[in-house]
Design brief:
The termini are far apart. Strand 1 and strand 2 form a beta hairpin. The chain is of the alpha+beta class and 70 residues long. The strands form three sheets. It has a two-stranded antiparallel sheet with strand order 1-2. The chain is built from two helices and six strands. The longest helix has 8 residues. It has one domain.
Amino acid sequence: MHPSEATRELRCARCGVHVTTSGDRVFPFGEQSMLCFECAVACGGVHDEDAEKWTRPPDVTDVLAIERDP
């Protein structure tokens, strides 16, 4: 994240836990949605700790369906 970007607190789109855009390992998707690390891994995501990036993104299909149909 670029230092000039403000830290925002959001909720994981899958489990609802609070996450921040800096400091937490999260998977951002869509315009303002995030998955916490645990949910991202549970959805099949693989995070490379050394490279600090997702080498395989999680499948967010089910989460997107929930967001569209509240």
